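debug: dumping io for the single-chain case to check the tokenizer round-trip. Nothing else runs in this session.
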Amino acid sequence: MSARRTDVPRLLRWYPAGWRERYGDELSALIEDTLDGRPLTRRFRLRVAWAGLRERGHQAGLTGTAAPATSRVRAGCLLVLCAWTAFVVAGIGFAKLAEHFGPAVPPRARPVSVGAFGTVQVLAVIGGLLVLAGGAAAGPAFIRFLRAGGWGPIRGHVLRAAGAIVVAAAALAGLTAAARTLTFAQRNGGDGLYSLAFVLTALLFSAALALSAVAAVAIVRRLALTRAVLSAEAVLAATETAAMTAMTAALALWWAAVGSSAPWFLQGTRAGSAASAVTPNLVGVAVLMLAADAVAGYGVILLARSWTQLRSGETQAAGPARS
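debug: decoded output
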């Protein structure tokens, strides 16, 4: 069976809208000539999709140097913001896994483990403040954007994020109320219904964070930010990345201290029993943190590559990004 007429336009959706308007007809004709009536194979679809994603990356300033320096700085900052969102999800998981670890750790290992855990907490607060500072720096541009009639394009993103936050907050309130009626053992795996509710609440919060990040990206891409604001955002993004990296190192130190002195705590087994310090949940948290660090690190690389050009004034201001 040959490719349906609707298959090629669907493939072109991998490319940015502006690119499709300019080159879409030519690429459609080229694809149809190349296929010559043959069906679309999976390999062919993947090649077109990959090419479209690369073009989106070029236009967004995520790859290459074709985009203006201001667009690349903006893209680097947004990458760090998205990475921080994933890092928060990992941090929530770590907070749950480390809950009430102090009494389980022998006195000799307590200073290191408590210090490492405290470091994560302090850096988490600093990271949140850095994000708020970034939002405040972009606040005047956002107000100008709204006054110019910009609410329409972002309305759906904002409402979805707000709705998800309300649902997640309601779920947390219900979970907190239920936790007060349970014992410590029940709250830590002894009650199947509570455990399920906790997982669902965590998923709701993860969805709320993801939708909030999507809304933030949709907004920031449309703001006209000055070089001064972009420079401030770049500094905040680099500092955020450093804080995330330090938190990951502190988690590793906590893991080593608790794993060497009280591995049974990590496994949730009886105190003093033989247990491995490696648990799937903690490995998942660490992997997510490392992945977020890597994404944020790439964002900082984008910032560093564009920093000289931005400071030299070769690009005066960042206008709204093209879709």
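debug: round-trip ok. The chain has three domains: 7-58, 65-150+222-318, 153-221.
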